[in-house]
Specification:
The complex is a heterotetramer. Chain B is of the alpha+beta class. Helices cover 32% and strands 24% of the residues of chain B. Chain B has a domain of 200 residues. Chain B has 13 helices and 16 strands. In chain B, strand 13 and strand 14 form a beta hairpin. Chain C is of the alpha/beta class. Chain C has 2 domains: 92 residues, Translation factors (Elongation Factor Tu (Ef-tu), domain 3, Beta Barrel), CATH 2.40.30; 164 residues, Nucleotide-binding domain of ferredoxin-NADP reductase (FNR) module (Rossmann fold), CATH 3.40.50.80. Chain C has 7 helices and 15 strands. In chain C, the strands form 3 sheets. In chain C, strands 10-9-8-7-11-12-15 form a 7-stranded mixed beta sheet, with helices on both faces. In chain D, strands 2-1-3-4-5 form a 5-stranded parallel beta sheet. Chain D starts with 5 loop residues before the first strand and ends with a helix. Classes of the chains: A alpha+beta, B alpha+beta, C alpha/beta, D alpha/beta. At the A-D interface, helix 4, helix 5 and helix 6 of A face helix 1, helix 2, helix 5 and helix 9 of D. The structure holds flavin-adenine dinucleotide (FAD) and iron/sulfur cluster (SF4) (3 copies). Flavin-adenine dinucleotide sits at the interface of chains C and B.
Chain lengths: 430, 368, 287, 272
């Protein structure tokens, strides 16, 4: 290996959500500095939540992130319902799962086609890629739109939907719209399967590494709730989260970082597939079986196929919820605020999202703490960048090194908007 | 003459009316309970009619409750009834297509040809229909879309038995019982309906229905119902409102209204006689085709008084005056009567709870 | 007053425009332009006729429709002129049209100026603001048939001297026999050759005989109100004072309700009204 | 070089939701790319922050000193500058910070090394710093708004500024009023339409995410809320969410409602 010196600055990372940069310094053929620098300014959401009534929280937290608002809303209502000791029942849970599946489909399809794939085919953008691969990109946009359509049916719109409330939904969705949605999903399912075949055929860097995984687990693939499991053997309820996970502040970043028992860890589609694929009904079906052997995977680049498989799962799951749909008497149960505290979580498209609230007698928030997936993945991303770049070889051209690093980062589908909206409230105070 | 006879249709026989209408190709629009209110929607059978529902209406407030009663129509009008079915809230009135050589082609959409039978139309809305006809049909220009829908319309009126506290049709001379303008008219009694016809089509249906002759007792009940429904709390003043309102533009009460009025336009949207609409274009991204739409507008909106660089009615007060003076004064000159048929919707559905009748009385009353 | 507006041609579907072609585009000033249009359908073209003071609805593809007065002469070859001020969305879009471009046109609509009634009479025309199109049609009409009318005074008022367009045209008209042009500016500037002040100051200078004159007014409502009373004070009969009114207009056929001016719909009862028809509302805030 | 209009989409402090109005357009995204040349749109791929463009869309509010410089630079580089969404147009939800007395201390309270945090005391609307040619309201905006806007710009005409109230949409769509039938504190009567009356169509009261409408009588509505039984604090919170900085909402937020209500009550009892 030559003793080269190199300095690469990527001031604006393209095709990621939010504002991040990457700095790489190589001195004497060794990596001196390599970091994903998150500079998007903090938005202080936890502060805004203080003083708001419990019923306002879903509308506030949604606005942390336009790409996964449902994840925020569901984690929040899970936490508050746990604080108020409420069980909104199976219908409500099914509806939340349904709108959440819509968000997975939308977010994953968007990431695959518009953010990640252009890297592998050598385009600047998904739009540019559409000129040469019109069928594939249009199919992707169609699936993305179907995800949006699920969200529109249940929540009126796909960005900051308006139907989720503590105790249930503001209103049961319209039967006729659900019937149309069901038909559309059934018709499009074969296209999602084709997409998976196509994704599986794309040659990926073989980049084996070892890392910790963390995900929620449930009898049927965890989405809107579950029990936390990890490759290190954890098995936790939301209220135990704090005992194992800690956040800290890195100077280059406006986001907080997180460690699990002092180590970096991965959350998100690959972590979910690695830990809980056997709970996914889709994976055991003949059409999908061919993908099963790829998981658990030590190649971070398999995240893309994991997303594709989750799209198929989400569509099948949505179809089965819709097939069993019946209109309930009431779309929510009344809540009785009480002085309390509660934790809740769910699997955002990018991974675990944990919320904690302290509420007073009227249900006004006294304190809020939220830990988003991208903060959790940050330490892992930097770890990966180092290992992956060494695997790749520091002798490659500047452009290739730069592109490879960006590929690695984008592979996590980091959502920087999310990452920076959080503050650690139990840090130093005068 | 139609309507000289009155027959009785037992409640169990109401499905017969539905079958007759279906055979003649009508879709049936009837009241339905939705989201805490009574809306008119297409239904397929008499069993879908709500029963036992009653309404409580106050300025800015509407609540429904269900009772054990078998009655299907023991409530007063909800937010909208007939108007949206004829004067569509939003429709494409023509389309412009740009050819590759730059030429423009203007195409009209197919005229609606649906046959609709509306069940449950109240007398105030029949009066309003007459006014909308005068505006859209008997004007120098004919509205082709309104005309086509009007042609396919069959009206089954139901006499009001339970006016709301906000109703004042008696004082405008438009209710509570329907006198004309329907094909069939029903009066709901405990066990069924007294029916009379008001048109040839109505007569034809009347002949085919399994009716018994109305008894003295039933006719007496009908009269009693009319008398009790005529006792309404609210009334428009029986004074020359037409002149007084336009003369009293400086009355201090207008300022008081303007403090409360939200200029949201709800009153104009629920009013069965309001006809204002605006037009606009919805073009495709590649600029080839453009749909020319019209949609309901309101004299409370900015665009209504907008002129190049100038606003004719900038203040909420100006807009409220336009609404009320048009309705109760200008309308006389335009269409020979007031534009208000006493349905009370503008009062119930006002989010600011402004009481239309009370305000008229205050502005035109003698105490100022 | 029973001057009914004539029906337009495209009557079967009152909202559907006809296709028209831009034959000529003339820039009158940076914001004022004249579009000379021709209906592309020969038959429609033959049938089209109008009176001074009537207007068309012009449609810009994908953008919208606006009411614009017709300024050409009714007897002219089948070309229809519109002088337009680019103020907003549609009119600024129309300003970008070039000869050969197509647009939509429906009309003519409304009740025009009382041209029959004022044959053989003196006429005084008062306009305010930037080039008031509706009266240009009248001026052209009278000048084309000069012998059929008596004396003509044209009074134009502007806020600022820079606002005056068609200066040469005014100068030219002023040289014609029995024709007088008077111009006033609120703010004239040092080299302004005309009157400093209000148009109403100029009435006494007019050559017309108030007892036998018709007045035609167009401009801001305040100006028209002041001018009406001024002219009546001068001795004109109120029913011979005519005003062209303006309100927002969407459909032009009396359906959309936007152009209501008290009891009247400006599109079909106007835009031209005699003073007694509207004196109860003139200048009243909010009407 | 093509003569298509050159566009840029810039991000400031935001949730990225308004950019999704582009990315969620589906087929229209590809159609749009045929009509315009996308020069800078980091989330979609192209990065050329300092390029000259015809139209710059701005998402997000201005919250750092660096943001201030950046927005000025973008203004200089763009013929038209258009804000998309609440954050850019009125300061958005971040502007809740402007209302907190101790906001300047927040970074220190929160970050281990606050000296690395560049954050102004205020979350500003873009128009606080540079001239804005047109504003698209909404939190978030939707694709239909973008398509309509682009349509106007491609034709060289000014876009339509929709500013009627949500109520008009409700009635056109035959959505039942939540205020009248449920006594809910709906902001529809003072909120711009454009969303399609989504909240009332889902049985809940509008919370004003499209911002104040033209002629918004927020005081009249706040009084009505008091009549419906809301306490002063609840009334103020209604107006203090997505567009807290808008002047119409400030009329309610910046007022001592407890005082006002007490006066009103005194007034009422003396009237009797
Ligand atoms: C009878 C009549 C004749 C007219 N003749 C002329 C003329 O010859 N030349 C000329 O330059 N202008 C004329 N106008 C005014 C012209 O219609 C408006 O200036 C024009 O509509 C404003 O266009 P905009 O580009 O601002 O449209 P936008 O701002 O896009 O207006 C939107 C809508 O509002 C309506 N509208 C806006 N302003 C007015 C207004 N002042 N009057 C009526 N409707 C309006 C338009 O019809 C359009 O449908 C006339 C108006 C009327 C009523
Ligand atoms: S003005 Fe009011 S009461 Fe009269 S018809 Fe209209 S909505 Fe009904
Ligand atoms: S629900 Fe809200 S927006 Fe709809 S009509 Fe009522 S007040 Fe207006
Ligand atoms: S109803 Fe109001 S809060 Fe709901 S989406 Fe529309 S503008 Fe936003």
């Amino acid at each position: 290996m030559s003793k080269r010196n190199l300095s690469i600055r990527v001031p604006i990372l393209a095709r990621v959500e939010g504002e991040g940069a990457m700095d790489l310094d190589i001195r004497d053929g060794a990596i001196e500095k390599l970091q994903l620098r998150i500079y998007e300014p903090p938005r202080f959401f936890e502060k805004f939540l203080e003083g708001r009534a419990y019923h306002e929280i879903p509308d506030v937290v949604a606005r942390i992130c336009g790409i996964c608002p449902v994840a925020y809303q569901v984690s929040a209502v899970n936490a508050i319902e746990s604080a108020f000791n409420m069980d909104p029942g199976p219908w409500v849970k099914a509806m939340r799962r349904l709108i959440y599946l819509g968000e997975w489909i939308e977010s994953h399809a968007l990431h695959i086609h518009l953010l990640a794939l252009p890297d592998f085919f050598g385009y600047q953008s998904g739009i540019a890629m559409a000129k040469d691969h019109p069928a594939e990109v249009r199919r992707g946009l169609k699936l993305q739109n179907l995800g949006n359509e699920i969200m529109r049916c249940i929540g009126a719109r796909s960005v900051h939907p308006v139907s989720i409330k503590v105790g249930g939904l503001h209103k049961a969705p319209d039967d006729a719209k659900l019937a149309r949605l069901l038909r559309a999903l059934e018709e499009a399912l074969p296209e999602a399967l084709e997409m998976c075949d196509w994704l599986a055929s794309i040659p990926l860097p073989d980049d084996q590494q070892t890392f910790n995984c963390t995900a929620l687990k449930a009898a049927n693939y965890a989405v809107e709730d579950g029990i936390l499991v990890s490759s290190t053997g954890l098995n936790l309820k939301p209220e135990q989260y704090d005992q194992h996970f800690t956040e800290f502040h890195q100077p280059q970043s406006t986001a907080l970082w997180s460690h699990m028992d002092g180590e970096a860890y991965l959350v998100g589609p690959l972590a979910r597939m690695n830990l809980t694929a056997q709970t996914m009904p889709a994976i055991s079906q003949p059409v999908m079986h061919k993908f099963a052997h790829r998981f658990p995977s030590n190649n971070m680049f398999d995240s893309m196929l994991a997303r594709g498989i989750e799209i198929v799962f989400a569509m099948q799951e949505a179809i089965s919820i819709l097939q069993g749909y019946s209109r309930p008497q009431h779309s929510f149960i009344e809540s009785t605020p009480q002085e309390s505290q509660g934790q809740g979580w769910s699997e955002a498209p990018r991974g675990l999202l944990w919320h904690h609230y302290e509420l007073d007698r009227q249900g006004i928030v006294r304190k809020a703490r939220l830990v988003p997936p991208t903060s959790q993945n940050q330490a892992r991303i930097e770890q990966d960048l180092h290992r992956s770049l060494l695997n790749f070889g520091l002798d490659n051209s500047d452009d290739d090194i730069r592109l490879h690093c960006e590929k690695v980062i984008r592979n996590y589908d980091p959502c920087i908007s999310c990452a920076t909206h959080f503050l650690k409230l139990n840090t130093v105070r005068r | 003459m139609y309507g000289s006879e009155t027959g009785f249709l037992a409640r169990e026989s109401l499905p017969e009316l539905f079958s007759l209408l279906h055979v003649q190709g009508f879709d049936i629009v009837a009241p339905q309970i939705q989201d805490g209110s009574i809306l008119y929607q297409v239904i397929t059978g008499a069993e879908q009619l709500p029963s036992g529902w009653q309404d409580q209406q106050q300025p800015g407030s509407y609540r429904l409750t269900q009772t054990e009663s078998p009655l299907n129509f023991s409530w007063a009008n909800g937010p909208q009834a007939l108007k949206p079915w004829l004067f569509a809230p939003r429709e494409v009135i023509w389309r412009a297509e740009k050819q590759p050589d730059g030429r423009l082609q203007f195409c009209e959409p197919d005229a609606p040809d649906r046959k609709l039978a509306v069940l449950g139309v109240r007398s105030c809305d029949l009066a309003a229909l007459k006014l909308q006809d005068a505006h859209f049909l008997n004007n120098r220009y004919h509205d082709p879309y309104y005309a086509a829908r009007r042609k396919g319309l069959l009206i089954i009126a139901v006499n009001c038995s339970h006016p709301a506290d906000t109703c004042f049709c008696v004082s405008t001379g438009d209710g509570p019982h329907a006198e004309q303008g329907f094909d069939l008219c029903l009066t709901e009694l405990e066990n069924g309906f007294l029916i009379s016809s008001g048109s040839e089509t109505g007569n034809d249906l009347y002949e085919k229905l399994p009716l018994t002759k109305a008894t003295e007792k039933q006719l007496h009940n009908q009269l009693q119902q009319k008398l009790s429904a005529s006792k309404q709390q609210r009334a428009l003043p029986q004074i020359p409102v037409k002149q007084l309102l336009s003369e009293r533009r400086d009355h201090p009460r207008w300022d008081d209204i303007a403090e409360r009025c939200l200029a949201c336009g709800n009153c104009t949207q629920v009013c069965p006689t309001c006809f204002c609409h605006k037009e606009g274009d919805l073009a495709s991204l590649d600029a080839s085709t453009s749909e020319h739409l019209r949609e309901w507008d309101s004299c409370f909106s900015e665009g209504h008084g907008y002129m190049a660089g100038h606003q004719a009615r900038p203040e909420i007060k100006d807009r409220y005056q336009q609404w009320m003076i048009h309705k109760l004064s200008s309308w006389h000159d335009q269409y020979g009567r007031s534009g208000c048929t006493g349905c009370g919707r503008c009062t119930t559905w006002c989010p600011a709870a402004i009481d239309f009748v009370e305000e008229v009385n205050l502005i035109c009353g003698d105490e100022s | 007053m029973t001057r009914a507006a004539p029906k337009p041609q495209c009557d079967s579907h009152p909202y559907l425009p006809m296709e028209a072609e831009v034959v000529e585009f003339t820039a009158e000033s940076p914001s004022i332009f004249t579009l000379r249009l021709k209906l592309t359908d020969e038959q429609q073209n033959q049938l089209y006729s109008f009176q001074p003071g009537q207007f068309n609805m012009l449609y810009l593809h994908g953008v919208g429709e606006v009411a614009i007065s017709i300024v050409s002469d009714p007897q002219d070859e089948r070309l229809i002129d519109h002088t337009i001020r680019a103020v907003g969305r549609v009119t600024k879009g129309l300003q970008q049209l070039k000869p050969g471009d197509r647009l939509g046109l429906r009309g003519p609509y409304g009740r025009g100026w009382p041209m029959q009634e004022c044959k053989g009479q003196d006429v005084i025309i008062v306009t305010g603001g930037l080039g008031c199109a509706p009266v240009v049609a009248v001026i052209n009409y009278i000048l084309m048939r000069r012998k059929k009318f008596g004396k003509l005074t044209i009074i134009q008022g502007v806020k600022h001297s820079d606002d005056l367009i068609w200066r040469e045209r005014y100068d030219y008209w002023n040289t014609l026999p029995d024709t007088q042009v008077l111009i006033a500016a609120d703010h004239g500037g040092a080299v302004w050759p005309f009157h400093h002040g209000r148009v109403t100051d100029l009435f006494s200078k007019s050559i017309v005989d108030p007892a036998n004159a018709f007045a035609m007014l167009c401009g801001p409502e305040g100006l028209m109100q002041a001018a009406s009373t001024g002219l009546i004070d001068l001795g004109l009969q109120p029913e011979r004072v005519y005003l062209s009114m303006e309100r927002n207009m969407q459909c032009a056929v009396g359906h959309c309700g936007h152009c209501q001016y008290g009891k009247d719909f400006i599109c079909k009862d106007g835009p031209v009204f005699s003073y007694p028809e509207i004196s109860d509302r003139l200048g009243v805030q909010g009407v | 070089m093509s003569d298509k209009p050159r566009i840029a989409v810039h991000k400031f402090s935001s949730c990225d939701g308004c950019q999704l109005a582009f990315l969620n357009m589906g087929e229209d995204l590809i159609n749009l790319a045929e009509q315009v040349e996308i020069i800078h749109f980091a989330e979609a791929g192209p990065v050329a922050e300092d390029a000259l463009v015809d139209i710059a869309f701005i998402e997000g509010s201005v919250v750092t000193a660096h943001d201030q410089q950046r927005i000025k630079q973008i203004r200089n580089n763009s013929q038209y500058l258009i804000t998309i969404g609440a954050c850019a147009t009125s300061g958005g939800i971040q502007a809740l910070k402007n209302l907190a007395a101790d906001a300047a201390d927040w970074p220190a309270q929160i970050y281990g090394q606050p000296q690395y945090i560049d954050s102004l005391d205020q979350s500003g609307a873009v128009s606080d710093y540079v001239k804005v040619d047109f504003e698209l309201w909404g939190c978030p905006i939707n694709s239909a708004q973008v398509v309509e806007l682009v349509n106007s710009l491609l034709r060289g005409v000014s876009p339509i500024d929709h500013q009627d109230k949500v109520c008009l949409t409700c009635k056109q769509e035959q959505i039942v009023c939540t205020l009248i039938t449920q006594g809910k504190p709906c902001l529809g009567p003072v909120t711009r339409n454009g969303c399609g009356a989504l909240c009332p169509s889902f049985g809940r009261d509008c919370f004003g995410c499209y911002g104040p409408a033209e002629n918004s009588n927020t005081i009249g509505l706040a009084n009505r809320f008091a009549g419906l039984g809301l306490l002063p604090d609840e009334i103020q919170r209604r107006f203090k969410l997505v567009h807290a900085s808008a002047s119409e909402n400030q009329r309610i937020i910046a007022r001592d409602l407890t005082q006002d209500l007490a006066q009103d009550l005194a007034q009422e009892s003396s009237d009797e």
